[in-house]
Amino acid sequence: MKLEIDKIFDAFDRNGIFKNKSLLQSSYTPSEIPHREEQIKQIASILAPVLRGEKTSNLFLYGKTGTGKTLSVQFVQEELNKRVKKDAKFKLKIEYLNCKLKKISDTEYRILAELIKKMGAEIPPTGLPTQLVYNKFIETIDSEKQIVVLILDEIDQTVKKISGDFLYNLVRLNSELSKSKVCIVGISNNLTFLDEIDPRVRSSLSEEEVVFPPYNAIQLQDILNRRARMAFKEGIVQEGVVEKCAAFAAREHGDARRALDLLRVAGELAERDNSRKILLKHIDEANNKIERDKILDVIASEPKQFQLVLRAIIYLSENPKNEPVFTGDVYSVYRDLCLRNKLEVLTQRRVGDIIQEFDMLGIIHVKVISKGRGGRMREIKLVIPKEIIKKANELIENSLSYF
Ligand SMILES: Nc1ncnc2c1ncn2[C@@H]1O[C@H](COP(=O)(O)OP(=O)(O)OP(=O)(O)O)[C@@H](O)[C@H]1O
Ligand SMILES: [Mg+2]
Questions:
Q1: Phi, psi at residue 237, to the nearest 5°?
Q2: Exposure b/e, 86-106, CB count within 10 A at least 16 = b
Q3: Which of 3, 52, 193, 228 makes a 20 to 30 Å CA pair with 167?
């Protein structure tokens, strides 16, 4: 046994693919940001007046996932911070917060509490009435003469998890301040988000806008090549590999994160294969693996009610004759599962919404079938591969007690 393990470790050592894997991980911040010069310049010139102590317009950045929004805004934040003068007559604070806080029930409280903490004041992590937290927030900002730039990344999450009031209060902040001024930089990859909110909030949030278009395949190749050169040992990447990663990611709405993930996972798979090079087939395998992990991540992060609806769909889809599954049947199985697990039973309508969400996530396909005289039925088909269904089932069963 020991010998075999030694062999595995030795081979791993010899055939190492990576020189520095962390360069391909999401936590790494690259020192250069090619193909975003335009956006960075725009953000910088819109925000530049804060260096003179002036309030700027609110700014809204949007573009699909992986188009460099977070990276670019944090770069400008750093550059601004480098120029803050110690002896200025006003203070400049630039605070970045990602609003997508995981598994927090009171998101509004947490967002305000985080911002208060970042600005150097104290607040208990839970327990105060929200109005008091608001007051404390305003008091903290207005405690001295200062310009505060609040960068709120994934700002659409505040509406999804809280309510529109949060943003309404936020854009009206300046009217409650006497010494200080606040500028808001909102970021979102939900391109319809602005259309869905109160028009007054919309026009205030997006006084200025910067768009992040998807990267094209050539730009992605360039981004990948710069990283690959430092991340991999020399001569490890088969010809065409970078091009293929870029092409896959360009198809996935020009997502640089996806491109970098593909390359990293392909490297890991090559290493596991004991291959001396990253081959084209490793990119295909990496692509499948990432797709699978993505679906499972979604399922794992859904609330129990969602998981039970999915479990009901999976259960009904496992019939030997492969008969279609209808919403009505899903509801009765779902209800049964809820009762057995002592969970609240949602209405048929809510379950209908959940089913629609699964459709949007690409886990199922829903087809509406007319039944004459205005009657309609929805036919459901699972569209995830068999091995993922098995894993999804395990996931759901682990989080519940009775099946
Ligand atoms: N021009 C670029 N050069 C180098 N790396 C880049 C570039 N653009 C994006 N990246 C890398 O791609 C990944 C995604 O970028 P980023 O986090 O900025 O995307 P985003 O637009 O904020 O996406 P999301 O909407 O999902 O938050 C990061 O790892 C980032 O370092
Ligand atoms: Mg981001």
A1: -95, 115
A2: eeeebebbbbbbbbebeeeee
A3: 52
Nearest ligand, measured from the Cα of 256: 1
Predicted pLDDT of residue 81: 95
Q: How far is CA 210 from CA 48, 100, 142, in A?
A: 15, 21, 29
Strands 325-326 and 376-382: antiparallel
The reported pLDDT for the residue numbered 49 is 96
pLDDT at residue 403 greater than cutoff 80: no
Decide: 378 and 367 in contact? Cβ < 8 Å.
Answer: yes
The Cα–Cα gap between 266 and 249 comes to: 14
Considering every ligand atom shown, identify the ligand nearest to the alpha carbon of residue 255 and give its number. 1
395 pLDDT above the threshold of 80: yes
Q: What is the dihedral of CA 112, 113, 117, 122, to 10 degrees?
A: 130
The answer to whether 269 touches 289, Cβ cutoff 8 Å, is: yes
3-state secondary structure of 278: strand
305-314 per-position pLDDT tens digit: 899 999 999 9
Nearest-angstrom CA–CA distance, 264 and 365:
31
Per-residue pLDDT, 39? 98
**DSSP state, residue 93:** E
| Ligand 1 centroid to residue 259 C-alpha, Å | 10
Over residues 374-389, the pLDDT tens digits come to 677 889 999 888 888 9
291 CA to centre of ligand 2 in angstroms: 20
Residues with CB under 6 Å of ligand 1 are 26, 30, 33-36, 63, 65-71, 189, 212, 223, 256-257, 260
- The protein residue with its alpha carbon nearest to ligand 1, atom 29, reads 26
Residues of the chain with pLDDT > 70: what percent? Answer: 97
Q: Are strands 364-370 and 376-382 parallel, antiparallel or unpaired?
A: antiparallel
User: What's the rounded Cα separation, in Å, for the pair 195 and 197?
Assistant: 6
In the prediction, which pLDDT does 40 show?
A: 98
Rg (Cα) of the chain, in Å, rounded?
25
The helix/strand/coil state of 165 is: helix
pLDDT higher than 80, residue 14: no
- Atom number, ligand 1, closest to the C-alpha of residue 212: 21
Helices 256-272 and 280-301: crossing angle, nearest 10°?
A: 110
